[in-house]
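Case 227 in the screening queue. Each case pairs one protein sequence with one candidate compound; here the compound is cytidine-5'-monophosphate. For every case the pipeline is the same: read the inputs, emit a complex structure as tokens, and attach any notable structural observations.

Predict complex for case 227.
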Amino acid sequence: MTSVNKPPVVTIDGPGGAGKGTVAQAVAAQLGWHFLDSGAIYRLLALSAQRAGIDASQTQQLVALAQAMNIQFPAVGKQAGQALLDGEEVSEDIRSEQCGQFASELAAQAPVRQALLDRQRQFRKAPGLVADGRDMGTVVFADAPLKFFLTASVEERARRRHNQLMQKGISATLGDLLKELKARDKRDSERTAAPLVPAEDAITVDTTDLSAEAVIEKVLKAATDCV
Ligand code: C5P
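Case 227 output:
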């Protein structure tokens, strides 16, 4: 099923807090493959728009910004956490819940998604790519030979987000996080442009009661068997 002449891709989609970032990054590191955190690209667009005073209704300006913005990921992955906008380190700024909400508003617009397609596809390089997002398996890398969809109960996802924020010294209440995750889930799942759904050929894993290590092992095994 591997596409002719194209490096293999493992896609890992799912809602926020399902563990995609941790798993995708660890799998990429162990395979020695590239890693794409597509959510970070939407978050960088949100931050860039916010700084330029562009709101979610200004689609044309958002498309222009999506095409022109200068972004870089110098260290591999989300945990390394380095994202640059116009050469400035903004890794902390893009992780706020507010930036995530704004990113999901912009991400609901088809022209904005279209404008970001090529940028995402450029991450597909030899020896392979692990891509984390919402539509990696359904749209961006629809021909990927191996696709996962990670889920977890919304309560468990809120708890994980809470722990992550606490570790970074950022205060947030569990109740607020739960509300924000539910709002984002609803917007991401109900939008008409690339809604959050598992690809038909995706393997769905409910991670509510699984450790990150167990999920990483499962994905690694499937990836090794597949390529
Ligand atoms: O994964 P993360 O929480 O960083 O993504 C932020 C937002 O960006 C998501 O809520 C979603 O609306 C949007 N997104 C998307 N498609 C992707 C990745 C992220 O629509 N492939």
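Case 227 observations:
- The beta strands are 9-13, 34-37, 71-72, 84-85, 88-89, 129-133, 146-151, 203-206.
- The chain has one domain: 9-217.
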